[in-house]
Amino acid sequence: MDRVAIVGIGQTKHAACRKEVSYAELVYEAVTLALKDAGIGISEIDNIVTTSNDFWDGRTISCMATGDVSGGYDKNISCVEGDGTFGAFYGLTRILSGSYGTTLVTAYSKGSESVSSLITNAAFDPIYMRCLGLDMVSACALQARRYLSRYGISEEDCALVSVKNHGNALDNPNAQLGMKLTVKDVMNSRMIASPLKLYDISPISDGACAIVLAREDRARKITDKPVWVKGVSFCADAYLLGDRDLSECRALEKAAGAAYKMAGIRNLKKEIDLAEIYDAFSYQELLWTEGLGFCEKGEGGKLIADGATAKDGDIPVNPSGGLLGAHPVIAAGLIRIAEAALQIRGDAGAMQIKKDVRNALAHGVNGVCGQSHCVWILGQN
User: Fold this and answer.
1) What is the pLDDT of residue 102?
2) Given the DSSP bridges, would you call strands 4-11 and 206-215 parallel, antiparallel or unpaired?
3) What stretch of H or E contains 361?
4) Which of 10, 171, 190, 212 is deepest in the core (most CB within 10 A)?
């Protein structure tokens, strides 16, 4: 495909509640940082893609609340309702269409102003399943139990993910929940929905993120450190939980395979230096790493127990702390792209895994229990 690069990155600090700012002010903060990082003004942005969700915002046509602060006046502006990786995908395609040279992509959430259990309950079939009271946590508890039981993975293996990612979040200045935990701390934390305990579950967060994408000729004029989009793909599975085996992630496998092929990736351990994965729950990091092909099915627990996903492992996973460190719904996937890009630029600060990061993977999820996945491969050149 034609060459497109990330040339600007902006991310707010994420917190349990940012009462001091409105939705618009939160997005404005991220947009301002992204434009400053790129060293350009809003006049150099050709079009805007905002990413939001009416349910989480509590209003219809939620994107209208942040269009102006995203710089949408007198520009072509579109909205994607879902995870930020999908919003970025649409922004990418707008440049690849040949119509635009630069695209600003924004995503945000204020979980503190929402009731997540009621919102995620609305994602289920309204006739047969919604009345059961299922929400994202209880549904993912079902997935976790199925996955752990099928492959003999222990709750302690999942706890190791929580220990690692909360620990990594201590190095992330934007994270909400950096903590020094032990496996015992995680295992003794309050049971929410068996087998998921408090520290197995990502926090509810307020936060926003923005990135600037540019066509190659524009990118080279804007920055001397472009982060190139080398491969990207997404795939969706069945909507109804009963229509798929929750211990599998077929959509992720297909999306990852297509992204690897586009990027020319043949040996993951040699060519992928790190991954930023959508770990809304601790078990999901294990399940998604298997779907991404980092290890064989059922080996995710062994991978984390052996330290292979730590900062000095074969493919470090979530050096930023991932979603267990902060989870602004909708923005979460775009933040994974931003964190991966910072690593490639060598600008990740205390989170930097090594000086020379050639390629990084970023991953986002839409839907309950990983119904759809979006995989990005980013690189230096």
Assistant:
1) 98
2) antiparallel
3) strand 359-366
4) 212
